[in-house]
Design brief:
It is built from eleven helices and twelve strands. With 396 residues, the protein is α+β, with helices and mostly antiparallel strands. It is a multi-pass membrane protein.
Amino acid sequence: MASPPPGQPPDAAYLAQSRVPEILFGAIFPAAIATIFVLARFYSRAILMKNWGWDDSWILLSWLNGGVVLTVLSWVLTHYGAGRHAILLTLPDIEKLGFIGNVCRFLYTTCLFTTKIGMCALYLRLFVEQRDRMIVWVIIAYHTIFTIILFFLLVFRCTPFQANWILTTGSCQPYANSLYASAMLNIFGDITLIAFIIPKLCTSTFSSQYHPANQFHTATLKIGRRQRNILIGVMGMGVLVIIAAIVRLIRTIDELKSANNPGYDLTFASYDVMIWSSVELNMGLVCAAAPATRPLVRLLAPRLLPNESGGQLDNSAARRSNYADGTLESENSQPGDERFELGGWLKSGTGKSVSDQGYGNAELWDCGGLLKNETCVAVEGRRIDSDRGDGKDHNY
């Protein structure tokens, strides 16, 4: 859209130019896609599995923040002049844009943090091996520390704080400082999450650990090719999040440099920064929510995710020793089908509470609906362990 010739007053056609439709579409469409996946996750976890976890609470907070509130604020920003030529804005409009934009920066930072923590909480459900859990906790600590630092940079950037949106008072440090820190630290955090999970999905193997303190084995899980490829594809969407973050960083840097030029039309030219921010946040929500939607997908489209290995547990191997491995594998399984290798005294059946034909009750730890039968990792229970010869109860 051409600008009016230098020295010439803008005509009606120029003043009527608007990028509001692009801003609204760029905010609403990604949020709608994310909402579908998030609600599917919530239905799977709360209704079908009846097992709501901390990871779900983090994703709920992230969705309310990024998928709902920030989408509404994008519309509010257009009401005060975003997407229109700056020449049309009054000083009160500019100050309101500055105030809402400042709120959006805090919400944006919070949404990125809660999404990452939600994904890490799911990983803590899946992995019980000490090394894996330590890596996840390090990732959580990393995101927590740098998010706190970013909040300090945002809070103390301007003196007084109101100078963030009131242009006639106080002074501010260059926004580029917190921008570079936020973007680079977030991009690195995204890379660490992808680098952690993709290799594990490629090998289709999850953790296996015997816990001496609690006297039980945890499980190694192997999943079928189709489910593995779907999960790799979903997690691979994290690359799109990284690309969106990089593009947003480049465009924001360009806008900050251009804003120093007299007469630069910031509110009209910077519309795509809002769009890329929405894409980054909502695609992150899709990556975080999609793995736990499997129960609903199997309910609606069972052929898409068939029960590749619905066999019963063979207890014979487990009964040879307290620490023997048993196998849960279908009699009709084919090469490449998912196979459950379980350790300790193993229980047959699926679900939250199962029985091992008189040997006590067991609890199968839930793994967020990510894997077959929505159960994984550990077997717990109590039984009289005659093999040990002491006639005492032992926890597993």
